[in-house]
Amino acid sequence: MSGGTAATRQQKERSSLAEVAYDSIFRMILSRELPGGTVIQERKLADALGISRTPTREALVRLEGEGWLVRLTERLLSVKVVTLEEYLQALSVRQLLECDAIEAAAGNLAAEQVAAWRRMLDKLKADAKPTNEAHWAFDDALHNGIADAGGNAVAARIIRGLRNITRLFESQTVPQRLRPGISEHEAILKALESGKAARARGAMARHLEQVRAGVLDSL
After folding, report:
1. Phi then psi for 78, rounded to 5 degrees?
2. What pLDDT does residue 7 have?
3. Residue 43's pLDDT band (cuts 50, 70, 90)
4. Complete domains list, the chain, with CATH
5. Best CA proximity match to 211, nearest among 189, 186, 185
6. For the segment 72-90, what is each residue's pLDDT rounded down to a tens digit?
7. Is residue 116 exposed (0-12), middle (13-18) or buried (19+ Cβ within 10 Å)?
8. Number of C-alpha atoms within 13 angstroms, CB side, residue 41?
């Protein structure tokens, strides 16, 4: 019994360390401490994090699965480089899927959920210097929440993957965009609060088109 308890405790500790490693490497990628194209040296990275190689490897496998890393060889990974072409293609597919999702979700979302997003946006608007992390926490909550509420689990999973591509490109290319989309997100929330599907679809389409235009203007 005690042996089983010890094994369970060790598993929990390893899982916790893997989560710490994941969070740390994820931040390093988005902050460009690990720029696009960087070859990951597992041992060196584990030493820098102060975490053993096993949980570090688990974190890297997770990051690869989510599309932040790409495999070069059986043993080598690198930070994914997103080209402008791939970014624009991903954004075009997002426009199709996310507009369908919000149209399906409008009128079906719980008022409490929309109110929670409203509070997050109001907090961002009130902050003169919101962090990039705060912006993305709201952006993920809103877009992923709408995708889930659209009722198509396959589409929601694809949307998450496409959002990873667009976020990685923006972090590598236009990291100065700390307050993007405030007015467009406001329009999306107002449309959801109205419960009108066509209005919500239009608000999402305009938002994603503005994202595209803003990035192209910054290049």
Report:
1. -140, 160
2. 57
3. very high
4. 2-79 (1.10.10.10), 84-218 (1.20.120.530)
5. 185
6. 998 899 999 999 999 999 9
7. middle
8. 5
